[in-house]
Amino acid sequence: MIAIIDYGIGNLRNVERAFQHVGAPVMLTSDQDQVRAADGVVVPGVGAFGACAAGLRRGGFENLVRETAASGRPLLGICVGMQLLFEDSEEMGQHTGLGLLPGQVLRFPEGHQDSTGQRLKVPQIGWNQLWHNDTDPLLRGVPAGSYAYFVHSYYCAAAEPSDVVATTDYGIDYPSVVRRGNVWGAQFHPEKSHAVGLQILRNFAEIVVSRSTA
Questions:
Q1: 16 is catalytic
Q2: What is the tens place of the pLDDT at every residue in 143-196?
Q3: 191 is catalytic
Q4: Which of 79, 120, 127, 144 has its CA 20 to 30 A from that of 194?
Q5: Are 190 and 148 in contact (CB under 8 A)?
Q6: Which entry of 52, 79, 152, 156 is annotated as an active-site residue?
């Protein structure tokens, strides 16, 4: 069973329905015991980093997510949920993250441009490409250059290049998929990324099953 943590942030039903669409056993829950008993855990997130971090703490999930990571169970952070995996964010002040991956969450620079000199808007809203070397199981069946759907003004500046699984170009090359051991993060929204996103969620479900039956 995959537990999607419901800590009062965003429309989590879309994530739940996307997992259900690929046949994954999933539950949306705010119950700590159910999260603790799950074979895999998803930390979604939309909006501001500080509000999401506060929601996790208020629901008693901050240490529970760290426990999940330490237990070896697969953990997936989505959008701000990926950003929360890092040490801190500069969004609307300075906010502390979970510290599961070293690095900071920074704002896209104002006035930055793409390779043609086109000025890029902040936030980034819409489709962009995932570039990777096809070695991580989360991206199995997702060709390099595939498009996913993004909505964000801040990006993760990973301190360890080995944690970066895929990158996306938005004036700068930033991590769009990260991994450290059993902990993954996706900056985009798989639940809004059509076939590509569904394949990624299917892959995560298969990772959970393979680990739980090993």
A1: no
A2: 999 999 999 999 999 999 999 999 999 999 999 999 999 999 999 999 999 999
A3: yes
A4: 120
A5: yes
A6: 79
Nearest Cα neighbor of 43 from 17, 20, 18, 68 is 68
- DSSP character at residue 155: E
Decide if 113 contacts 171 (C-beta within 8 A).
yes
What is the structure's pLDDT at 113?
A: 79
pTM: 0.95
* Contact partners, residue 111, CB within 8 Å, separation at least 6: 119
Do 183 and 102 contact (CB within 8 A), yes or no? no
The pLDDT value given to residue 109: 86
Beta partners for residue 86, in sequence order: none
Alpha helices in the chain (DSSP H): 13-21, 32-37, 49-58, 62-71, 80-83, 194-212
**Mean pLDDT estimate for the chain:** 93
Residue 128 is predicted with a pLDDT of 97
* Three-point CA angle 179, 81, 95, nearest 5°: 105
* DSSP, residue by residue, 179-197: EETTEEEESS-GGGSHHHH
Our answer to whether residue 194 is catalytic in this structure is no
For the chain, the domains span 2-212
